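User: Structure please.
Assistant: Input sequence and predicted structure:
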Amino acid sequence: MALSNLTKVQTVGIGSNIEVVGVVTTGQFKSGTSNLHSTGVELTNLNVSGIATIGGNLSVGGVLTYEDVTNIDSIGIITARSGIRIGATGANTLINGNATGIGIGTNSPKLSLHLHQENSNATFAHFTNTTTGVNANQGVSFGLDSNEDATIYHYGSNNIRFATGGTEKVRITSGGRLLVGTSTSNISGSYSAVVSTGAAGNNGGFQAHYNAGAGGGGSVTTVNAAGGGLDFWTYTGNLGSEANYNQRLRITSDGKVGINRTDPKHALEVGGNVYITANTSTANEGAGLLFQAKTGGFNTTSNAAIKGLRVNDTSAYLVFETGGTTERLRITSDGNINVNSDGVSSPYSSFRHLSINNNLFLNANNNAGGFAGMQNNAYLNSSGSWVRVNNDHTTSIGTDDGVFYFRNAGAGTGAISWNMPVKIMASNRINIGEGNSGSALGAVHINTSTVMGTNTALWIGDNTNKRYLAINQVNNNEQFSEMKLQYNDNGTNSVLKLSNPISLAGYGTAILWQGYNDGQQGMILCQSEGANNAAATMYLNSSSGTFLQGNSSRHVTTPQQPAFLAYHYGHDINYGVGSTLPYPFTVFNTGNHYNTSNSTFTAPTAGRYLFSVNANGNYTSGAGGIPRAYWKINGSNVGNSIHLRGSDATHDGLEQRSQTVIFNLSANDTVKVVVGQNQWDLFGANSFTGYLIG
């Protein structure tokens, strides 16, 4: 049936083909009593040459074929229940859909879009634009390759980008680098194919996790500071609940490595033990640290090394090498140290030794106590005896029981008998020499002996130019002999200098001499005369005190010099022959050597004394002779009867006479003046004085 511009048909029975030329509106097509668009119409073949407009649904039970159609315009919904095939017969692709999604190559899609290949060939979705071109090797493809590997092919020289939250997070560059957290990485030279960046609190890095049991893992991050570097971390627990997150290793931007160190200052710093092992059962093999300092890079040789070499499974020794592989020092498994010697002989086995060139030995006993020290050409053998190594002199420095010894012995072989010229005692005193059975009597005790071959205990200075200090003693008798200060210069330098910088008045320095029972025998004392002043007074003291002093004005006094000044009563008294002229009162009586009760002076010490006396001659005709008063020493006249002489006539009356004398006296000599003839008169103006002048 051919219909041309059919617009309304009341009832049409269609038994064969309907060919419509023009526009067909199915609003009034009926099937039975219903409209065609309501009940549907079943058409075996509908061939529309023009435009078929269907207001309702069009259900096609067979195949709907479009031939030579450029555009298909559907205002409503096209339902293809068995799918849509696109392409030439035999090479077409089935597009089907269900409630889950659209399937291409499958009528049972499993996701919103499902591409399927009914063989083992590759399956890809391919995207291009006008810039990339439309060929198979242009644009980008996503899918499975023939090996069933998930594959992204970007055929151009551009990046593959991954973004979340509207921000790019990962990029694969056209050069094959993986960038995490960054879109650019311009590092010259050798660099990593994977780059991860971040800022404080979100450092760039990588994390590896053990996803079983209690979990745990580690990460590598950038250093959270300017300048960069790498930190290596470990943690326990599972992802999202990591605990014990600790930095274990850091590599700084300038190449320094710290293990359990957060701020290494050197090429390698380790906060903890370093364990080096070698899997060997061969004696004298092991592992170590090798050092090399050379130009042109490293090679298999070393400049120096520290090696731990095997003795057995539980014992090893340390070797230090320099100059290539030349052994310089060895620490044996039993604690001995050898320098330039690869072994110690059996005599040392009971003691710990440090051997240098098999000649200098440092030793210590295995047990507490015993001598420990340093010896030249001497060692302590297994019997505890000191023995020479070679036929030569030997010396030793060491300590035992709190005493520090400096020892020596002459050349020879075998056992050693030590000389001990110096010892620092447990009391901190220093004993030089071998006297007093080794007991120092002072902070420094110097005692000569026959071993020393000299009587000089101390010598300081230059003998050639005769400038020295020498302290000598009687040979091997521990008796001080002399101290000699010899000076050979222009006299402007001090031979002996004493200094006391205290600024207070009365402070100074002194030289003290002591005698029996450390009692003072004499002293030279110099004391400041005022505060903050260098002016001073010098005193010469004996065992009983000062006997001479001189001040800064160069005034010399003898404060204890025996001296006196005595005088008579205030009224006249006449004294006859045999009477000692009395002067019972004193103005001063230094030393109390003048006796006021008998007017007699007793010399306290031998010396030259000056005396002066004055009295009044009172000639009396009834008394015999001219008035004379004689000086008496120990009761006897002095010399040719030295005396005072009065007037020989009565008309002269009282005449005052005075006389000054100097006597050489011995200790305990007595001096007084006695009336010898006629009579003498004394009153308050008369005096008797005397003093020691030297």
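Residues 502-556 form one domain.
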